[in-house]
Every structure is written in C-alpha cells, then in structure tokens.
Amino acid sequence: MLLGSAARYSRLRSTYIEISNYFRYRPATLRTGLRCNVAPVRSFQALSCLREQPHIQPSHRPFLEEYKKAVEFPPATHDFETFFNQAAPDQEVVLHGYLGNRADLSKKLSFARLTDPTMTQNIQLISFAKNDAFQKLKSVNANSPVAVRGKVQSKKGSGPDTPKNECWELFVEDIHPLNDFPKDIIMTPETVFPPEQRYLQLRSDGELRDALRFRAQVHSICKDGLEKCQPPFVEVETPLLFKSTPEGAREFLVPTRRPGMAYALPQSPQQYKQLLMASGIPRYFQFARCFRDEDLRADRQPEFTQLDLEMSFATGEDVMRIMEEVIRKLWSSLMKESAPSGPFKRLSYQDAMSRYGSDKPDTRFGMEISRLDYLLPVDLISKITPLTESFVDVFKMEGNDNDPEATTKFITEFLDSPAGAPFNNNPDGAPGIFVYNAKKPLCGLQPFGFEAAEHLEDILELDHGDLIVIQARPKAPFTGGSTAIGDLRRALQTAAVSSGFKPAPTGFDFLWITDFPLFSPSSETEPGQGGTAGIQSTHHPFTAPKTAGDVDALLTDPTQAIADHYDLVVNGVELGGGSRRIHDAAVQEFILRDILQMPAERLADFDHLLSALRAGCPPHAGIALGFDRLVVVMLGKESVRDVIAFPKSGKGEDPMVKAPSLMSSEALDMYRLRLRE
C-alpha cells in the first residue's frame, strides 16, 4: 500500500512539473496561436487519463490551447444599456454575453441573439459567409458565453416607438468563444432543473433572477432609509462565531481543535446588539445572518437573514415608528400599493387570539371568531368535544352565490382531504359544521335549538348558503401562536381560494400584535431557556415587562405579567418581532435566576451581558425583521426559497453541494469527537 501510494505520488508530481515546464518553455508554434488539429479534451475523465500518461507531449493537450483563448479575450466596449443609448450606424463595438439559438437562412446567412451578462437585454446578430466569423458562429453551441466584435446597423422597419434593443442589429466580424455550453443540457424558459443544478435553474428562470435583483433593491432602500434617519443608524457587523446560550431555539455548534470546546452560530445578534447599546452606539443596524436548528417549513430556513436594529434611550413606541417609516419607504419605492400613511393598526395578543385564533392573523378576509358563552344544548357540546370544561368558538364563511349545495360540496371535499385530517382528528373534538339553508327547518340549525339558533343568526348576520363552524377548546388562557379554530379558519380560506370557491384577498394589511404574555408554559418540543420553573420567556429572556404593574406581577404571579413585546404582521405573515429590553443588571439576573430558575452554570453563560448592563447601560429597544419573508410578501411568493439564491431543502440540506456531509474519521480525530450509535 505504501509503495503504491509513493509511486502514484511520484507519477502525479512528474505530471505537475511537466505542466509547469510546458507553460515556461512552450514551443514558439504554440505561442503564436496556431490551432492544434486534435479535438479539444473536455472531460475530467480525459484529464485523469493525461495525468496517468506523462509521456504525452504538450502539443497534444489542446484543451490548454482552448483555455488560452478564453484567458486573453477582448474587453467589452459597452455594457448593453450604454450601447443602446449611444449606438450609431457603422460603429464598431465589442459586446459580451450569451449566444442564443442560431437560425440559418441559407448557406451564407445566419441569425442569432446575443443576451447580455445580466440576461435582461439582447440584440440580434447577423453573420455572412464573407469572413471567418460565419464558421465560428456555427461552431459555438447555444447558451455559450462569447465576446462578439461587430458593426452596428439600424434595423429595417424600426421607428420612434420601437424598443431600443430592436432598433439596432450587429453584423458579426469576429466571435470569441469563452466556454462551451454542452449540447446534452436542454435549457428553455420552461425547463425545471433539480435542486442539484440550482445554478442552471437560476440561469433559465428569469423570475428567480428578478427576485434576487428585487431583494437587492429592498436591501438598498432599507439601508438608505436607516442611514438617513436623524440621528442615523450605524451599520455594525457582529460575530458569527458566538457561544451557546439558552435563548429559546436549538443552535448549530462549531467544534474547535481545543478538546471539548465549541462555538455556536448565533440564533440572532441579540446579545451583541445589547452590548453595543452599553458601548455608546446609540442606533445600530445590520443585515444579520442567523442560524437555528429547528423544524423547517415554507417560510423558514436553517440559515436566514434578519434586518436587525436597536436604539438606546428608546421605547417600543420609538422602534415601531421607525419601522413604519422603513416599510412606507419600501412600499412607495417598489410597490404599486402604498403602505398606510398613519400609524399601523394594533391588536393585543388576547384580541388576536380570541378574534382570529392566531397571533399573526390575516384580517383581510373577515371570518372573525366569537365565543358562544351560553344557550348551547348540552347534547350538542357533548357531540363536538370530550372536554368536561370547555369554551366553544364560532365563525362563519360567507357562501358562494347564496348556494347551500355549493357550500356543502366545498366543506365536504375539504374535510375528506388530507388538509382536513388534522381537524377531524383533533383530540379536543372535531369541528361542528353547519350550512345555513333557508329552505330547511330552523335553516339547518336544528341541533342548536330555537333560542341558540336565533342568537347565532343575530351575531353572525347569517345568509342563505353561509357556512357555520363551531369548535371546542379547553377552558384556559390562550397560549402559543394559534388555536384549533384559528388554524381551521386559515386552512378553509386557503382551500376556498385554491378551489375557486372564494377569490384571493388583495392588498396589504399591516398591524402590530402587542401585549404578549411575558412568560408562557414550558414546551415539550422547544428547548426554551433551560430553566426549571416550568415556564419560559415568550419572546426571549431579555424582554422587559410593559408597565410598573407588570413588574409587581413578577413577585406574585409571573404568568400574569405582560411584555413590552411587539410583532409586525402583514397578511398573516409575521415579518418580525421586537421588544424593549431589560437594561438593569439586577432585574435581568432576577429574571434568569429566580423567575426562570436557570441553573448556576447556565446563568454564568450571561455574565458578559450582565456586566455590560451593570456598567450604566441606557434603556433600549429594538426589532428584527425576517428579511427573506419581507421580500416574499412584497413579491407575493409562496416560499422563501423563491427569493434565496441557494436555499436549503425541506430537510435542511443543500443537494447541490451535498451539505451537510459526513465527518471523516480524520476530522473527528482532529476535533476529538466521537459518534454515538
């Protein structure tokens, strides 16, 4: 084995030396650019073959000759935009771009389109058989990058209303291939490439490229707006190699060569930006890369971007005002519909949960939820829930053209579909479904009884063909981000739009959700902050109580304390969340140690923050907008993958580069790690 490895190393080394000598002492015939008659070598297999045959002479390696031509290619005289604005007849230009499909009109005349490097503009090329360029053009595959030298001519039939790119054409005098696009790859605007070839999907899909350009514009406008505030925000980059601290989400660890030591990738720049507030930086922002090892969905990636900002000597009101100004500037610059001119609407967490069953409701399509506190027959309640103590909520979906049969067909298909399965199998009871039909006794509401049916008609303003949904839930305060009836409300609306039963809602409805509970019951599925009190911070453990009364509640019943926490929601999407922070070291330590009951070793993880707060840190507040989600909402896309160049899959994998990859035994040894079965 050792002898074989040594021989192979010697053979490879001699090959590399030979290549080096070839470049240093290549024959004059090759330096003058004479073409070699041997067909170009293009495959990695062929290159490997050459390595194994060091006796082959340099003149028999034509792939290097082809490469030399691409190394020394003519510079472009114009980009396409400048060219179209300055073009003149008989002007000689050099343009760079991608060659389109060629059309041969005869043995002496060919046409093709040249698309610019941004793939947004193109010009027609014309080639005649009177020069070498004609044969060169025929030898270059479509989609290959080229440099074209030619003479500008006005296009026949063009007039003052003709688009710029259609006013001119280029008579090709020379074409310089810069690389080959293989014939075995079929590329059309309709081609859908697998995730393993994301680069080809980006190249063929103009909509994806436009989304990335739009994303860059959003970035620029946000940055410009914050830097022009008075006083201005300062862009500061915070480290990506952080330490493991219990903020509420699972972290990605980065091992080091020091035994047992690891970095953690930041869930957010939260602690660093609070340290900046203690450092005399009054207004900070950055487009921060964040990492969370959590279950994925359409609007979530293991790595994502936040527009993160923090303000000292500020309250949550100050932050919300700044954020509204940023949103208004974005919408006025890039969108057809303006954002609200005045303050955005506000809903408390309790109101959002009771009226919409969600802490990020889409309020555009109504279907508000009401609670049925009385009048419901006992036998009806027993049929919809096994709970002995319950609340019963109700909402209506307006029918379609006053047609009860159409409503019945829609709801039956929904409940029989996979989308309806979670609601049928709800352990607190399946929903009660009724269709209001004026032709039936009690309009189809017989199970409610006369008095309750009349009450429903009044509070819901029922009409022929309307759908009525009731759902039981435990008799307890709201917790979490949604209720079963809230999830059903949203699912029914989605199904109604996708099936054509309802039109899609339009416009943008911005609102702030405020007054969240400061603490919530610990979750079995989320890591929380690692305390032992049975509760966890709803947002993160640095969030301040909202009022003096909420501070008092910390000593009596912390679960009754309200947080100065605010989420920005639009069309049912949480764009971001923020809060006023605890700026007093003693209060912050009290929350961590006495309220959350973190063990001493976890509390020590926050020594750096407590020290900074103790050093006279001013009051401060901030917010983080999910930048990927923001762009998705603005473009009306379905997934953040549509606005990210190289997204991860639903499993958190990058199939293009095959990440994550297995750690080699050498890497495990280097970092002193051991895999457990």
From TrEMBL:
Region listing for Disordered, in residue ranges: 522-542
One Pfam short name: tRNA-synt_2
Record has Nucleotide-binding as a keyword: yes
Origin: domain of life: Eukaryota
Aminoacyl-transfer RNA synthetases class-II family profile domain ranges (all copies): 208-647
GO cellular component, one term: mitochondrion
GO MF, one annotated term: aspartate-tRNA ligase activity
One BP term from GO: aspartyl-tRNA aminoacylation
Listed Gene3D superfamilies: Bira Bifunctional Protein, Domain 2, GAD-like domain, Nucleic acid-binding proteins
Keyword Membrane: no
InterPro entries to which the protein is assigned, alphabetical: Aa-tRNA-synt_II, aa-tRNA-synth_II, aa-tRNA-synth_II/BPL/LPL, Asp-tRNA-ligase_1, Asp/Asn-tRNA-synth_IIb, GAD-like_sf, NA-bd_OB-fold
Keyword tags: Aminoacyl-tRNA synthetase, ATP-binding, Ligase, Nucleotide-binding, Protein biosynthesis
Protein family membership: Belongs to the class-II aminoacyl-tRNA synthetase family. Type 1 subfamily.
Name the UniProt record assigns to this protein: Aspartyl-tRNA synthetase
Organism listed in the record: Aspergillus sclerotialis
